[in-house]
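Subject: design request, 215 residues
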């Protein structure tokens, strides 16, 4: 009986993982709005951390610093993924170096605290690109560090196997319209760090990433 119960729990866990939130949106106007796109900028992600202290006490300043670092980590992971796809000649567009992106944002006085007041058209103009990739990350763990990806039955039974959510958006320069959006719940099966999580997410979404070369 005990063995059957364990099997059922693992089956439920598998179903939960396969049904984890994963939503992809592609605009019907994508082809029309993106036909002249040549270069895209990846922005630092806006991050909200809801850390459990586990013996550590974080001040507001420390949380702010950690959120900025996590946002940069997602930006770096996305750049690494896209450049790898580009090397394999699977993407039609170029990406602005994130150091250039961050330098231009800083020069314009744009920070993680005020970037949300700027429209996509304004950001594209400042960065001199055709579109921007932006997004948000909410997490109870520091993803830039290694996280425990082993199955935890107690955590699963308590309904706490999910520990965050990431949203990736692609916006057009001229219209400011949302062209593509990917939303994914993060859990123990997503990966052990930011790079693993982004690679896993984007591999699954690559067929619906609209700049992918069709073969």
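Subject: RE: design request

Done. Sequence follows.
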């Amino acid at each position: 009986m005990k063995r059957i119960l364990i099997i059922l729990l693992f089956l439920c866990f598998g179903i939960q993982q396969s049904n984890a939130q994963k939503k992809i949106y592609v605009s019907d106007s994508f082809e029309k709005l993106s036909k002249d796109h040549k270069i895209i900028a990846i922005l630092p992600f806006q991050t909200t951390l809801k850390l459990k202290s586990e013996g550590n006490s974080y001040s507001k300043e420390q949380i702010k610093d950690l959120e900025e670092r996590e946002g940069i980590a997602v930006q770096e992971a996305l750049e690494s993924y896209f450049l790898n796809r580009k090397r394999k000649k699977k993407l039609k567009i170029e990406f602005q170096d994130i150091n250039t992106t961050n330098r231009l944002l800083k020069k314009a006085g744009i920070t993680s605290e005020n970037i949300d007041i700027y429209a996509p058209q304004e950001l594209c103009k400042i960065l001199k690109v055709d579109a921007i990739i932006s997004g948000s990350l909410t997490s109870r763990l520091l993803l830039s560090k290694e996280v425990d990806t082993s199955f935890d039955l107690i955590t699963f039974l308590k309904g706490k196997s999910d520990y965050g959510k990431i949203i990736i958006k692609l916006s057009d320069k001229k219209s400011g319209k949302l062209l593509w959006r990917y939303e994914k719940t993060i859990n123990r099966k997503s990966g052990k760090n930011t790079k693993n999580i982004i690679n896993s997410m984007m591999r699954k979404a690559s067929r619906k990433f609209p700049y992918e070369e069709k073969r």
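The radius of gyration is 19 Å.
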